[in-house]
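Researcher: Good morning. I'm working through a list of sequences from a screen, and I'd like to move beyond sequence-only analysis. For each chain I'm collecting a predicted structure so we can compare shapes side by side. This is the next one on the list. No need for commentary yet; just the structure.
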Amino acid sequence: GADANKAWHAVRRDAKKHRSPNAGWPEAAMAGALGLALAGPRFYGGVLVDDVFMGEGGRREADSLDIRQALKLYRVADYLLIALFGLVSVVVIVVT
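Model: Good morning. Structure tokens for this chain:
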């Protein structure tokens, strides 16, 4: 249910707008992949934090299905990263 093209588009467009130089990348990617608008204006401890939105999800709030899809996408990305490092480790061992 995730859209890789929209994820890349959201990262290129929105990641640099995030107040954190690190958090903008995964947050924008997840927003684009799942068709959500994440971040944006919100309240923390009764104080309004006026941030920009990541993604183009029509400003709808994430529901439980979105959270399940995000966790599934996270697990897939994690497995791919583990596989990549495993492959790199094997190549390094074989080459040395």
